[in-house]
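Design a sequence for this backbone.
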């Protein structure tokens, strides 16, 4: 029994160390007891609060937002990875405040990302100590810290990207079974349920691995078979995501996300900064040295040469070296789809760090213990870790310091309404009533609004239209959430006439005014309905009715998900 306990402790030791590093990264936030409100915080907090209320009241509305986003009925979660919203809602229900929610999710994302990077290095036969240091460096750079600093969803792509590389490595290393369909299905389903753009990056990044795997495979036919299984399985298990997007876009003209300058958001070198748009000189040096190493001796390790070359190419694409200004002129859709070329680093960094782990391990194993190469290889990674941990810690410390100052909302963009009472905002982040923060700080977010055909070409002012038509008008109406996912508005009119309701209506929305279903009505530039009101008390009810084919698709998805969990459990039991 004692020996088993010791073995369990030894096997778990790397993960305890990764948890410790996660705690060290978020230590400034733990000490200050502060909440970091970043660029995307309020938007995603609304999403998660919506799912929380649906669970609490057991009153689900898959499409319509009834509790959040000014109770406007707009669609967000259904088109923005709904399962992840419900996952965060469960965490928020357990945490009960935004502060505790942030601490839990920050620890979770750092642990997932660090563990993935560690497992990737071990998969490549790296020494355990080297694998841990590489994992720590990865946890402190790029997009991974952006979840703590701004609730950027690309951070979850960065956390899961090492697992994607593990699947790619398997395609080359394992010649008998290059693809485990269940493993690939799980990875792609999880990332599609979290962040769609990251799933596109993952799929593209795996293509060279698949081609190389076909060349090396003993059974290419099996490889194709497993790939087809994985693709079909992923399509079925993500039907709730792509099905909702398809249905909404078939009959509605949906507003694109905001446009950004690609060049301004491409990766560029910096002295010590390692945030999403910058790469510190120590990391630049490591990457250049790694590339030089494999170019000089490309035949020493095909796998090292392969992943380093592929990672370097993606890193160049993510940087200012690529002519992004010209590309934006030729392919303007990239400004609202890709938005930030630096997002590609979620693929480049795991590949390059995996190559570095292989190189350092190879040098240590092949050189005398006290040689310059041996000592340099051992010392360079801890030094690099120190040079990336300190700036990250300083950045987090600075952002948490804002919590106790007048700069509390300094990093929030597109604010339409924010209380001047900073103490009330601070109190709301610690309160067990999460809705308080969302009523004190409101953001104009035009994402996924339905644009009537006569307004479809004018996208520049939809953000302000949402502020004037929804955020400012909604205070004049009383909102009630009814059973069955319905939203009821009540207001009093001094005289009869035309009234614009602070609601967002889609082709599939059913609007009832004063007990009568309204089928023909004019809509504003963002889909708010104009209706006829009578003198005195008026009521309006909004309900979203999805297409019947989507309901069938959802049923297939639910059944398939249950079967997946049953088979997955059986597979793991059999493997153990």
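Sequence:
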């Amino acid at each position: 029994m004692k020996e088993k306990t010791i073995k369990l402790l030894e096997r778990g030791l790397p993960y305890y160390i990764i948890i410790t590093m996660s705690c060290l990264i978020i230590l400034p936030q733990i000490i200050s007891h502060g909440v970091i409100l970043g660029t995307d915080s309020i938007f995603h907090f609304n999403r998660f609060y919506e799912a929380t209320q649906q669970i609490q009241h057991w009153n689900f509305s898959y499409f319509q937002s009834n509790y959040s986003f000014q109770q406007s009925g707009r669609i967000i979660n259904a088109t923005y990875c709904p399962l992840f919203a419900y996952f965060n809602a469960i965490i928020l229900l357990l945490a009960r405040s935004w502060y505790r929610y942030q601490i839990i999710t920050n620890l979770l994302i750092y642990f997932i990302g660090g563990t993935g990077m560690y497992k990737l290095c071990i998969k490549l036969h790296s020494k355990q100590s080297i694998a841990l240091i590489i994992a720590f460096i990865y946890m402190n750079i790029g997009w991974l810290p952006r979840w703590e600093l701004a609730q950027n969803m690309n951070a979850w792509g960065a956390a899961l990207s090492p697992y994607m590389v593990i699947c790619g490595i398997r395609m080359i290393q394992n010649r008998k079974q290059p693809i485990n369909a269940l493993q690939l299905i799980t990875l792609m389903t999880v990332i599609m349920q979290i962040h769609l753009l990251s799933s596109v990056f993952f799929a593209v990044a795996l293509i060279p691995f698949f081609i190389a795997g076909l060349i090396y495979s003993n059974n290419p036919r099996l490889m194709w078979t497993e790939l087809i299984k994985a693709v079909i399985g992923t399509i079925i298990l993500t039907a709730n995501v792509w099905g909702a997007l398809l249905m909404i876009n078939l009959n509605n003209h949906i507003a694109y996300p905001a446009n950004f300058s690609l060049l301004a958001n491409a990766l560029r070198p910096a002295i010590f900064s390692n945030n999403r748009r910058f790469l510190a000189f120590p990391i630049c040096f490591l990457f250049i040295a790694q590339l030089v190493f494999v170019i000089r001796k490309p035949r020493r390790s095909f796998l090292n040469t392969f992943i380093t070359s592929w990672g370097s190419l993606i890193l160049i694409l993510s940087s200012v070296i690529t002519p992004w200004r010209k590309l934006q002129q030729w392919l303007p859709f990239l400004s609202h789809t890709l938005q930030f070329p630096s997002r590609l680093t979620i693929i480049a960094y795991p590949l390059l760090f995996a190559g570095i782990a292989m190189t350092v391990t190879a040098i240590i194993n092949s050189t005398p213990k006290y040689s310059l190469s041996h000592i340099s290889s051992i010392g360079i990674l801890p030094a690099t870790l120190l040079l990336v941990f300190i700036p990250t810690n300083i950045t987090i410390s600075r952002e948490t310091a804002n919590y106790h100052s007048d700069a509390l909302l300094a990093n929030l963009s597109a604010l339409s309404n924010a209380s001047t009472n900073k103490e009330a905002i601070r109190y709301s982040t610690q309160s067990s009533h999460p809705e308080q923060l969302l009523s004190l700080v409101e953001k104009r977010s035009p994402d996924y609004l339905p644009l009537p055909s006569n307004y479809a070409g004018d996208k520049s002012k939809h953000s302000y239209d949402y502020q004037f038509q929804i955020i400012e008008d909604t205070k004049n109406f009383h909102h009630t959430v009814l059973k069955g996912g319905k939203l009821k508005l009540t207001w009093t009119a001094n005289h009869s006439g035309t009234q614009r309701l602070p609601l967002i209506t889609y082709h599939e929305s059913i609007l009832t005014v004063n007990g009568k279903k309204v089928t023909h009505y004019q809509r504003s530039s963002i889909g708010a309905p104009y209706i006829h009101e009578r003198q005195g008390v008026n009521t309006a009810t909004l309900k979203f009715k999805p297409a019947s084919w989507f309901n069938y698709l959802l049923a297939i998805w639910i059944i398939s998900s249950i079967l997946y969990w049953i088979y997955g459990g059986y597979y793991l039991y059999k493997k153990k």
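The first strand starts at residue 268 and ends at 270.
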